[in-house]
Amino acid sequence: MSELVTGEAVALELRPARLPSRALAVLLDLAVAVLAYLLVSIVLVVTTASWDEAARTAVSVATFVLVLVGAPIAVETLSHGRSLGKLAFGLRVVRDDGGPIRFRHALVRGVIGVIEILVTFGVVACIASLVSARGRRLGDVFAGTLVVRERVPAARVGFVPPPPPWLAGRFAGLDLSAVPDGLWLAVRQYLARMQQLDPQVGWAMAERLATDLAARTGTPVPPGVAPAAYLAGVLQERQAREVRRVHGSGPTGGTARHSGGGPTVGGSPHSHSAHSSHAARSGQADHSGRSGYSGRGEVPPASGDRPATGFVPPA
């Protein structure tokens, strides 16, 4: 589900970078890397003049690997997908779901890039980018990454609404390891653009995404929680885990609780019923026109009194 098209032909996806801008960014990165390699080589030639031929050859090979392969991998990892060339042209490497890349993504891209960019002078990379629907080279395909444009008009950047406050920490016990990147991408892009959809189309899409997400986590959608609110709550939990992983603080999920001290999804029946009661009261407010359905499974009406596709957090 890396690309999702609604009944109104609204495509929910990232904005892939075009081949010309990617090529210019790679050329700038290569120019900087080759210049650094030449400077380091000159220094090594002077300092290793008294060494034997085998030692100088080993140092030369190690310098090539470290400067032209290792350095770009380290830069992409530490900058979360922004090399000097990509930064200059407003590009960034992200995962298929739009999240920041990790070392393993940069490593796969760098190793395969040696073959398709350095060895073949970029011919293989250009052909692969032209054939790919989203302009991905082979390194991106094997790493599960995508080069996207960051410099887009502010008016076109979708705002992902937060879940209702009473859902904070509700999904801390979910196992999110089996959720694929494509599904995360579809959820985030739906939430960012759900206000542009027809109410019935948006509601059906939210139910479908919520069903897919619940099947991947192994836990059903809690009673009384609207599909869009469920999607926003689980997405927020995933983002919170990413932040904790990057900064190395706090639990990574499974035992965390929200600030109100209430249970997670797998909490006690008494506390869960309290949350469901709260959700039911919120659902009653939904019919007043503020946030759509109560999430109890009723079929959305077919006429003018249709629900909104999302939800509005309490003021």
Task: Report what the structure shows.
- The chain is mainly alpha-helical and 315 residues long.
- It has two domains: 12-149, no CATH class; 165-281, no CATH class.
- 52% of the residues lie in helices and 4% in strands.
- The chain contains ten helices and four strands, in the order E-E-H-H-H-E-H-H-H-E-H-H-H-H.
- It has a two-stranded antiparallel ribbon with strand order 1-2.
- A hairpin with a 5-residue loop joins strand 1 (4-5) and strand 2 (11-12).
- Helix 1 (19-47) runs antiparallel to helix 2, helix 2 crosses helix 4 and helix 7 (181-193) crosses helix 9.
- The protein is elongated, with a radius of gyration of 24 Å.
- Mean pLDDT is 75; it is low at 1-12 and 251-315.
Give a short account of the largest sheet: 2 strands, antiparallel
SSE succession: EEHHHEHHHEHHHH
Please report the total strand number as a whole number.
4
Q: State the strand order across the main sheet.
A: 1-2
Any low-confidence stretches, pLDDT <50, length ≥5? 1-12, 251-315
Helix content: 40-55%
Total of helices: 10
Mean pLDDT: 75
Radius of gyration from CA coordinates:
24 Å
Quote the distance from N terminus to C terminus.
34 Å
The best one-word shape is elongated
Q: What fraction of residues sit in β-strands?
A: under 5%
The helix-and-strand class reads mainly alpha
* Total domain units: 2
Give a short summary of the structure.
By secondary structure, the protein is mainly alpha-helical.
